[in-house]
């Protein structure tokens, strides 16, 4: 493969920014040169990308997606093909999707199903976490096997969704003990699903069926309670690495911050919808429109007992929130969200966002919520380190995969169904958002896949990435 030189750009890493030229040879970064040095040293390249006035950043890593997830009586509407193409449009060069084992299924077989879904389909690289929806002796053995042999080193458990993915405290403790033993990470969906189901039945009995009741029946207190319980169980199991997924509420963040202050192996992510959206502007829209934003945990009210959004941005600055992922789990309104017409609890849970995370978080830089370096850290570098892919992924450095985004800060991105929208969904949850800055050029392992506002990649280019253990543990 030919050599590519990216010139005159500002390379951004978690620790700073610098004018520097990047030489790519084949699939990896070969060298980096101070301005003018590449020419002085007679470096030649078949392709030169001029990044004058632009940022050159590591490809984004979305550590939480659900392509083709069978859920809520239907399947998430992005396939690995359409979803990873949309990821490319969004400056994301690696996704970590969730293989799914349900109660009664074999974990290793379920991973095989996920490999079959993804193989030969992806535009960008992909890795897997494993959902364990039925913790039993076989599943515990499989956790060890997957960690030691298959590059699957993180396991998602659910304290929500009784009868679907739910684990009780005993099952959680056993899985955590196993994870503690092998060094793998437990990812937790922390909402008290047993209590939520009671509130849902009571609301429906009162005739409260609109989408907004999805949020009212999942109060933030029950996210805080479950987060606390998960942290305690992880301590009892032996300081198990615990990663709380999709934190939506201050109640949960307070528990995470306290655990981190106590020195425990507790980490957290949030998602753009919790950083930007409120119940009032989304789920509470008249009629059924609010269904577009039904996801779990729910989008929180602006008038709650906490200022969730401000607290989440603060948590992102203080590193109590380490990562922003999307929980990309899209469903169309037609035939999918519509399953819940007249009954909010039957609306498939999830929204699409894999294409917009880098954009939305860059707006956080412009809005002075986070620094440019923190943007790169939280969207690119930390996901690689948290999930055992660094320094192959997540950094611009010699030897790393040439996953690179050239970012143009001097333009804007209009998100919407008739503007920028490449996910396989019949609406955009981010309709009308106008972002400062835009994805300009995207390279995946040295191959340009987005340029001049066109997708020039191909399905099957993306490869499976075997991961190691979290790199945040001593
Ligand atoms: N939450 C969602 O909104 N969708 C998929 C699964 C989840 O936990
Ligand atoms: Zn979840
Ligand atoms: Zn999820």
Report on the structure:
The protein is 30% helix and 23% strand. It is built from 13 helices and 21 strands. An eight-stranded parallel β-sheet has the order 8-11-12-13-14-15-16-17. The longest helix has 17 residues, at 220-236. The structure holds dihydropyrimidine-2,4(1H,3H)-dione and zinc ion (2 copies).
Shape: globular
Poorly predicted runs of 5 or more residues? none
Q: Into which percent range does the helicity of residues fall?
A: 25-40%
Strands of the widest sheet, in order across it, are 8-11-12-13-14-15-16-17
- Tally of DSSP β-strands: 21
Radius of gyration: 21 Å
Bound molecules: dihydropyrimidine-2,4(1H,3H)-dione, zinc ion
Total helices: the number is 13
* Biggest sheet overview: 8 strands, parallel
Please provide a brief summary of the model.
Helices cover 30% and strands 23% of the residues.
Keywords:
alpha/beta; 7-stranded mixed sheet; binds dihydropyrimidine-2,4(1H,3H)-dione; 474 residues; 23% strand; 13 helices; binds zinc ion
SSE order and pairing:
Layout: E1 3-7, E2 10-13, E3 16-19, E4 21-25, E5 28-33, H1 37-40, E6 47-50, E7 55-58, E8 60-65, E9 70-71, E10 74-75, H2 80-89, E11 92-101, H3 107-118, E12 125-132, H4 137-150, E13 154-158, H5 169-182, E14 185-189, H6 193-205, H7 212-216, H8 220-236, E15 242-244, H9 250-261, E16 266-270, H10 272-276, H11 308-318, E17 323-324, H12 357-366, H13 372-386, E18 404-414, E19 434-444, E20 447-451, E21 454-455
Parallel strand pairs: 1-6, 2-7, 8-11, 11-12, 12-13, 13-14, 14-15, 15-16, 16-17
Antiparallel strand pairs: 1-4, 2-3, 4-5, 7-18, 9-10, 18-19, 19-20, 20-21
Bound molecules: dihydropyrimidine-2,4(1H,3H)-dione and zinc ion (2 copies).
Residues 189, 245-246 line the site of one zinc ion.
């Amino acid at each position: 493969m030919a050599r590519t030189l990216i010139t005159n750009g500002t390379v951004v890493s978690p620790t700073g920014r610098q004018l520097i030229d990047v030489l790519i040879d084949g699939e990896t970064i070969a060298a980096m040169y101070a301005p003018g040095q590449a020419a002085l040293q007679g470096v030649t390249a078949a392709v030169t990308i001029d990044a004058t006035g632009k940022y050159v950043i590591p490809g984004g890593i979305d550590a939480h997606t659900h392509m083709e997830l069978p859920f809520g009586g239907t399947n998430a509407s992005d396939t690995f093909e359409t979803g990873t193409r949309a990821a490319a449009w969004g400056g994301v060069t690696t996704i970590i999707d969730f293989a799914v084992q349900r109660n009664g299924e074999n974990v290793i077989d379920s991973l095989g199903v996920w490999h079959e879904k993804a193989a030969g389909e992806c535009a960008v690289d992909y890795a897997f976490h494993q959902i364990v929806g039925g913790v039993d002796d076989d599943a515990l053995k499989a956790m060890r096997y997957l960690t030691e042999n298959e590059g699957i080193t993180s396991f998602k458990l659910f304290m929500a969704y009784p009868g679907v993915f739910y684990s009780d405290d005993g099952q959680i403790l056993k899985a955590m003990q196993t994870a503690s033993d092998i060094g793998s990470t437990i990812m937790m969906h922390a909402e008290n699903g047993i209590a939520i189901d009671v509130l849902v039945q009571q609301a429906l009995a009162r005739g409260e069926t609109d989408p907004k009741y999805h949020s009212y029946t999942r109060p933030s207190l029950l996210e805080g309670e479950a987060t606390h319980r998960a942290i305690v169980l992880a301590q009892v199991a032996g300081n198990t690495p615990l990663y709380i997924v999709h934190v939506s509420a201050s109640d949960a963040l307070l528990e995470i911050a306290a655990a981190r202050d106590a020195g425990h192996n507790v980490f957290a992510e949030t998602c753009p919808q919790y950083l930007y959206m409120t119940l009032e502007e989304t789920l509470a829209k008249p009629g059924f429109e609010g269904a577009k934003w039904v996801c779990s945990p729910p989008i929180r009210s602006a008038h709650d007992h906490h200022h969730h959004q401000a607290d989440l941005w603060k948590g992102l600055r203080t590193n109590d929130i380490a990562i922003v992922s999307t929980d990309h789990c899209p469903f169309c309104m037609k035939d999918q969200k519509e399953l819940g017409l007249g009954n909010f609890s039957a609306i498939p849970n999830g929204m699409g966002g894999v294409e917009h995370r880098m954009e939305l978080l860059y707006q956080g830089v412009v809005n002075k919520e986070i620094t440019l370096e923190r943007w790169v850290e939280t969207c690119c570098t930390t996901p690689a380190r948290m999930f055992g892919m660094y320094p192959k992924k997540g950094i611009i450095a010699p030897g790393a995969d040439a996953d690179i985004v050239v970012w143009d800060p001097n333009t804007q991105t209009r998100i919407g169904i008739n503007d920028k929208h490449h996910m396989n969904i019949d609406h955009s949850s981010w309709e009308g958002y106008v972002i400062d800055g835009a994805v300009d050029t995207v390279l995946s392992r040295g191959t340009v896949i987005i340029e001049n506002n066109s997708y020039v990649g191909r399905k099957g280019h993306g490869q499976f990435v075997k991961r190691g253990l979290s790199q945040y543990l001593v």
